[in-house]
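Issue 218. Parser rejects a valid record. Input:
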Amino acid sequence: QVHLVESGGDSVQTGGSLRLSCAVSGPTTTTECLGWFRQAPGKEREAVASLYTGGTTTVYSLAVEGRFSLSREEGAPNTLTLEINNTKKDDSAVYYCAAGPAGYTRRYTPYCPSYTYWGQGSQVTVSS
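Output the parser choked on:
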């Protein structure tokens, strides 16, 4: 069974920094894809950053590229960390950690089609 436990949500001023952590436990075959999503009031949930645990590439949304950094530390449990720098008001949202199994193309290229497991959410509030 997969468990995702987030921590680190807080209030911060614009231009500040924040770190969100997610403890990921469960079978590795169901947590090959790891990512962070966020949802602001009145808006749809959007992807922020994601990675495939068997590779080295991290994908960021255009809104956060250059300011957010995603990393993973193996352990028991694994830890997925999202560092947020130079915070903006638009970063205010509930942030969710997510995990799911990878899919593979005919040539065994991995991709992340969807996320099956979600954390409880962590509030980030950015104010001026």
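Fixed in the parser; the record now loads. The mean pLDDT is 94.
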